[in-house]
Amino acid sequence: xxxxxxxxxxxxxxxxxxxxxxxxxxxxxxxxxxxxxxxxxxxxxxxxxxxxxxxxxxxxxxxxxxxxxxxxxxxxxxxxxxxxxxxxxxxxxxxxxxxxxxxxxxxxxxxxxxxxxxxxxxxxxxxxxxxxxxxxxxxxxxxxxxxxxxxxxxxxxxxxxxxxxxxxxxxxxxxx
Length: 176
Ligand SMILES: [Zn+2]
Prior knowledge:
Layout: E1 11-13, E2 19-25, H1 27-31, E3 41-52, E4 55-69, E5 76-92, E6 96-99, E7 102-106, E8 111-113, H2 115-125, H3 144-175
Parallel strand pairs: 5-7
Antiparallel strand pairs: 1-8, 2-3, 3-4, 4-5, 6-7
The structure holds zinc ion (ZN).
């Protein structure tokens, strides 16, 4: 995992006293995000940083909603997500990630861009199957018009695939 260089907003200062940093990830985070499948969202983030024996632990708590694409109708819907993760930061010679959730920062560095981790935690927090929740009456919460359009589109695609072959055949027939 590599950190985006221009994410100044999401850099936390390390090495100071124990503290909690709190902020909200809004649409700007998700729009500038490489994961363009997300249509936006609002996520409350709190990071509790504690220092023990030269190791800094960052306890993340993320909760809120993320606009994701429904697998069934391909429309955006708000998915509720919640995630608790812990990162450990050590200081060493070179910056790098030595194992999952353990990062080494060179001694000259005092800031960590946490945006790639926030991204990763949100991906992990999402359910495998992303679909609109059912309505109260048990019917599908999906956009029916969208499903209809998709079906039509699919039929059109199949026809488009078949048509060129017919054209070739016609050409052959015309020649003879
Ligand atoms: Zn849907």
